Amino acid sequence: MKSKRILFFTSLFILLFISSCSDTNQDYFHMIDTGSPFDFHTIETFDGSIYATGGNVWTKSYLTSSADSKQWLVDSLTNKSVFDLYATDTMLYGVGNDGYIFSGQPELKLTRTKHWGLLRAFTAAKIGFVAVGGKDFNKGWIYKVNEELKIDTTYIFENEILDVSCNQEGICVACGYGIIIQSNDNGYSWKRIDETGDYYNSITINAKNEFYIVGYNGSILTSVDNGTTWEKLKNGHSPLSDNKPFRTIKFNNNVGVIAGDNGLLWYSEDHGQNWKDMSIDIELDLFDFVFYQNILIAASEKGILYKVSL
After folding, report:
1. Are the beta carbons of 285 and 261 closer than 8 angstroms?
2. Which end of the chain is more exposed for a tag (fewer CB within 10 A), N or C?
3. Quick one: how far is CA 85 from the chain centroid?
4. CA 282, CA 70: separation in Å to the nearest integer?
């Protein structure tokens, strides 16, 4: 009889523990249906509010916004898709199809560039701005953009360019389909770095001024010398790795997060040197995210956002 009681209480404890873990797993994230019919490609914060957009490449995009992450407003933005939002202290910017560049405080107004190329990312340099884009894997471009949002210089590549980051020293690094490119003069000239091997989706800079890149095959690269040389923290082509697609990487102080397909979220507390899996149990892909107060808000498909506790 005693052994049966022990077995019963042991089984009960295991069931309660599993139930508790399951509840916790569901409690740390929840879905927000904003009512937008389109996929979200990008999300950003500006002046205390949150802005997300995306759209259909050729026909429409909406700008979805919230002042508190609880109530969301959906407005029509433009007749093409927008792929990146970028904020400074004084201005919100966006770029998209047909060379569109938007700017506002926060009402976004369109500036048409002299080129019609699809733009994937936009960032401020120490002088002016840099916009990058491309299509079909084998066509890419980098635009050096002045303060009036006019293109000063255009660079063409045989690789699609997807993202770019610049530090306070005037060093810019761009990445894309099997390519990493470096500029030492705020984006006025570029040279290719001898590093290939992945469809590099996203680049960012941590609080230690180290560059980080993630790729669609699951690579994580870091550079401590302004993008001249790179260390593979995770090899996306290793047969021993669980190589799920990475879409975006960002840092907030010492905390880093990577987002990707099927709810993938990786988390680092040491500026990106070590990572742990905190993925959420969904089938949708996470294309971008922002740190907002003590949570993370991730942009996904079909007008869906996810709040995730950190």
Report:
1. yes
2. N
3. 10
4. 21
Which amino acid, residue 122?
Answer: F
Q: How many angstroms separate the CA atoms of 58 and 78, rounded?
A: 10
Q: Which residues contact 45 (CB under 8 A, 6 or more apart)?
A: 51, 87, 290, 292
Query: Among the CATH numbers 3.90.79.10, 2.130.10.10, 2.40.50.180, 3.30.70.20, which is that of 32-309?
Result: 2.130.10.10
Distance CA 256, CA 268 (A): 5
Contacts of 167 (CB under 8 A, 6+ apart): 205, 209, 226
Whole-prediction pTM value? Answer: 0.89
H or E element in which residue 18 lies:
helix 2-27
What value does the mean pLDDT take over residues 291-307? 96
Domain residue spans of the chain: 32-309
pLDDT digits (tens, 9 = 90+) for 231-263: 999 987 765 566 789 999 999 999 999 999 999
